[in-house]
Specification:
The chain is mainly alpha-helical. The chain contains 13 helices and no strands. The protein is globular and about 75 Å long. The relative contact order is 0.14.
Length: 279
């Protein structure tokens, strides 16, 4: 392709990318604008992008109306626990699948990918019955178990890529020195997998932090509900909503996910691509 024809193509690509970014950013920017608008501006027939009289009243009202701190604490406990459990289980599984390739491991990898296509609604009834028999309905531990199992396939997929990127020669050298399988995994492989383990745990955390459907069905007591469920309490009858406080609470609930994803997005991309090129 000549430079004369490639330049318009690049310009078109950048314009398309810019339009896509604007499309993605529009809801969040409008959320921020709404969170800082007073009631008079929210009811205006001529809405503006930038609040003319920005205020923090929506944030104060949101904390007064709903137990956001308690709900955030529940979400934090559930998300952190699910992330840790998923990584602890997925790490040795990923090691076996990456180092001992067979038809079984190939089938397991395919099942991991296929399982992500299952909609939540197909799983909620079996999960509800299982948790009911275990007396874990309306408990954070029951929700943590669901989040950990739901995050496990993707965590396993990510960690397999990281394990394959670790040179097998390092493990072979440790084996020559007399180290066993467990010692090799803990002392040699695990430290090299640390960036991948952190990225995987943070991804599981973000997924659990933003999850709504399972928490809505499994948690009934207001004291146990997570932040996404509590946000629905700002919606009144017949679709009416307390828009200002709802936007303020939603903005605060979105911040942890945005910050963590900004930190780990390069590591996530690296984990997806790791192991794609054979040495």
């Amino acid at each position: 392709m000549s430079p004369r024809t490639s330049r318009p193509a690049r310009v078109g690509q950048y314009l398309a990318l810019l339009c896509y970014l604007v499309f993605l950013a529009f809801p969040f920017l409008w959320l921020i604008s709404t969170a800082f608008k007073p009631a008079q501006e929210l009811g205006s027939l001529h809405p503006t992008w930038i609040p003319e009289h920005p205020t923090l009243d929506n944030f104060r009202q949101a904390f007064d109306e709903q137990p956001l701190l308690r709900a955030a604490a529940n979400s934090l406990i559930a998300a952190l626990s699910a992330g840790v459990i998923a990584v602890v289980i997925a790490t040795p599984m990923a090691y076996v699948m990456a180092r001992h390739r067979s038809r079984l491991s190939t089938a397991a990898t395919g099942w991991v990918v296929v399982s992500q296509a299952f909609p939540f609604v197909l799983l909620i009834i079996p999960l509800f019955l299982i948790l009911k028999n275990l007396h874990l309905i309306n408990t954070l531990w029951g929700l943590i178990m669901v989040y950990a199992v739901w995050a496990l396939p993707f965590a396993l997929w990510m960690l397999v890529g990281y394990v394959r990127a670790v040179p097998p020669e390092l493990e072979e050298a440790a084996a020559v020195d007399g180290a066993g399988r467990l010692r090799i995994l803990v002392s040699v492989t695990a430290p090299l997998l640390a960036p991948g383990i952190v990225a995987t745990a943070l991804f599981a955390f973000i997924t659990a932090w933003n999850e709504f459907f399972f928490a809505l069905v499994l948690l009934k007591t207001p004291e146990k509900q997570t932040l996404p469920v509590v946000l629905t309490h700002f919606l009144g009858a017949e679709g009416a909503s307390d828009l200002g406080p709802l936007a303020a609470a939603a903005f605060l609930a979105t911040l942890p996910s945005l910050v963590l994803f900004a930190v780990i997005q390069r590591r996530i991309t690296g984990g997806m691509l790791a192991g794609a090129v054979k040495s």
